[in-house]
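ok new one. same drill as before - structure tokens go in, u give me an amino acid for every spot. 303 of them this time. try not to just spam alanines like last time pls lmao
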């Protein structure tokens, strides 16, 4: 029943023309500002590329926790007669507001790289969280003007903000757990664990990325002189085929959202991707290129 509700909610959101049009226009604007030029490093920072983990979900835990504490303190003060909690409420609420602003900013940096269905749902998710944050700002201001005296008047906007934020959090959970936004597309790659022949050395064109399926694993091979590089052929961010990307020295650029992966170790050099590509060891013998996985332990848990 919950699954049916979630699917119906997502479908209802994506069917609203105004939401779709607004989402596409805002996405284009953000891409214009952040995709190329001097602000690209700021986007990488907000994506969490440097951390090898999306930054947005780490930040969202702070306002949820801080505002939950806020409501509990309000309940203690208003309904259980505990005095002198106004300043503590203000500190908890203020921390949540600051963290929410950071979460909103990083969320938009992730959101600008998603596809249409997730784009519409993500916009509503953002609108709900921004609205909830504004209600908490109002509650904080009212509490400040009341000289940190707790009252029903400054409790009501905080309660409304919490309820609105909860709806936004529900949509955010659906984006990840149902629609797969920001999920590592290589999380369950494995093998081959032993050297396996792939293609003749002279059959692999030089400086031209080629994809090969080796025992069910998509592997990208690039030959440079006598050296052969091998990493996963699927972008960890959204599953794009890296063989269609642009080769820049020892960097392969994703053709969809322009993440950069190092051919030398699979690491992410530019976001929005945060998880590295699987890395494969290569060898040349009997005129053939052989590969085996070099880094799987950090990508998948042992079975």
């Amino acid at each position: 029943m919950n699954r049916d509700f979630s699917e119906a909610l997502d479908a209802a959101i994506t069917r609203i023309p105004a939401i779709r049009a607004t989402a596409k226009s805002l996405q284009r604007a953000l891409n214009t500002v952040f995709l190329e030029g001097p602000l690209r490093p700021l986007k990488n920072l907000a994506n969490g590329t440097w951390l090898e983990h999306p930054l947005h979900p780490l930040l969202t835990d702070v306002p949820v926790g801080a505002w939950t504490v806020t409501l509990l303190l309000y309940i203690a003060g208003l309904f259980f007669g505990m005095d002198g909690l106004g300043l503590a409420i203000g500190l908890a609420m203020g921390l949540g507001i600051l963290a929410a602003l950071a979460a909103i900013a990083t969320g938009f940096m992730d959101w600008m790289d998603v596809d249409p269905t997730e784009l519409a749902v993500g916009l509503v998710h953002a609108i709900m969280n921004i609205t909830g944050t504004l209600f908490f700002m109002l509650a904080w201001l009212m509490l400040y003007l009341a000289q940190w005296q707790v009252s029903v008047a400054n409790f009501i906007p905080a309660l409304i903000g919490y309820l609105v934020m909860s709806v936004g959090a529900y949509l955010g959970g659906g984006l990840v757990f149902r629609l797969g936004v920001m999920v590592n597309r290589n999380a369950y790659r494995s093998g081959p664990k032993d050297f396996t022949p792939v293609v003749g050395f002279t059959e692999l064109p030089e400086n031209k990325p080629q994809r090969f399926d080796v025992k069910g694993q998509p592997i990208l091979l690039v030959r440079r002189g006598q050296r052969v590089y091998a990493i996963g052929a699927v972008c960890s961010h959204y599953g794009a085929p890296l063989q269609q990307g642009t080769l820049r020295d020892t960097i392969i650029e994703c053709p969809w959202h322009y993440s950069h992966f190092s051919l030398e170790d699979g690491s992410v050099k530019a976001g929005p991707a945060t998880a590295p590509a699987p890395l494969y060891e290569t060898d040349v013998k009997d005129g053939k290129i052989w590969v085996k996985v070099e880094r799987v332990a950090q990508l998948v848990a042992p079975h």
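The mean pLDDT is 92. and btw The two ends are 32 Å apart (CA to CA).
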